[in-house]
Amino acid sequence: MAATSFARRALRHPSFVAGALLSSLVVAAALLSLVWTPWPPGDIDVMRKLQPPSASHWLGTDAFGRDVVSLLLAGARNSLLVGTVAVAVGLVFGTALGLLASARRGWVEEVIMRLTDFTFAFPALLSAIMMTAVFGPGIVVSIVAIGLFYVPVFARITRGSANAVWSREFVLAARAAGRGRMRITLEHVLPNIASVLIVQGTVHFALAILAEAALSYLGLGTQPPQPSWGRMLNDAQALLFQAPRLAVFPGIAIAVAVLGLNLLGDGLRDLLDPRLARRR
Question: How far apart (Å, rounded) are the C-alpha atoms in residues 39 and 15?
């Protein structure tokens, strides 16, 4: 009954529906690229460079003669890969640290929060630059840089949400019954903040895709021959007046992915918040 009620409310929520449709479109493109693309994304054919849209190349070709549709499909796969792994790293480690800080309090909480403050001094872009200087650019650098930046983000979100749950009556009752802090954390605190973490994970997924595009645009992320929306924008900047479509199409792809995940996150926030759910 609960699942049916949630589905019914979700289908009536315009933000959730729009976000789900746009996000599903990006995911479908990424999955499709695993089994089929109109042309091999890495194939270079200089004789066919900068061709306009046609029956054989639906969105034309770029400066190297590569099919733009194929590049967009394969780029979706790489963007989702970076976003998924980076957010997973931040979510797992950040949630663990936030729950530990909230459960232990005292000097443990103070040490963890000061470490997160220190980590905030190294945003994803700066971390990627430093790591590139040591290890060289690549998709792994993007994942690690974005993931490390998200650890303190989720740690703070988890700690703040968990502190509010620790003051609730059912948690006080569990403590009075003699249950340990770690058991209370796993059985009572984590389930009650799961909705917050899901919403934040969705929103930061969109930001991770944007960060990956920015790092690739700067040459710090995904490297050739792997396609990337950010690198497509970088390649297109020298041809803005000759072939502006080469910048328009990857720009639209990034906008659709980010907009879809943001709308999905807003919809999930409304649907998973009991106070907002009662109003709908």
Answer: 35
Helix (H) or strand (E) run with residue 24 in it: helix 14-35
Distance CA 236, CA 131 (A): 26
Model confidence pTM above 0.90: yes
Asked whether 232 and 216 are in contact (CB, 8 A), the reply is no
Which tokens in the block code for residue 79? 């963007």
Radius of gyration of the chain (CA): 22
Looking at the structure of the chain, the number of domains it has is 1
> Is residue 9 one of the residues assigned to a domain?
no
CATH code of residue 267? 1.10.3720.10
Question: 200-233: per-residue pLDDT in tens?
Answer: 999 999 999 999 999 999 888 888 888 999 999 9
97, 235, 245 from 240: Cα distances, Å: 46, 10, 8
> Which tokens is 81 given?
């890969």
Is 18 domain-assigned? no
From residue 101, give the alpha-carbon distance in Å to each of 60, 90, 158, 208, 262.
54, 16, 9, 25, 29
DSSP 242: T
14-37 confidence digits (pLDDT tens): 999 999 999 999 999 999 999 999
What does the alpha-carbon distance between residue 252 and residue 237 come to, in Å, rounded to a whole number?
Answer: 15
DSSP-derived letter for residue 51 is P
Are the CB atoms for 156 and 118 separated by under 8 Å?
A: no
**Nearest C-alpha neighbor of 99 from the set 4, 36, 184, 25:** 184
**What is the rounded distance in angstroms from the CA atom of residue 206 to the CA atom of residue 202?**
7
Does 54 reside within a domain?
Answer: no
Alpha-helical (H) ranges within the chain are 2-11, 14-35, 68-104, 106-119, 124-135, 139-166, 169-176, 181-184, 190-217, 229-236, 245-272, 274-279
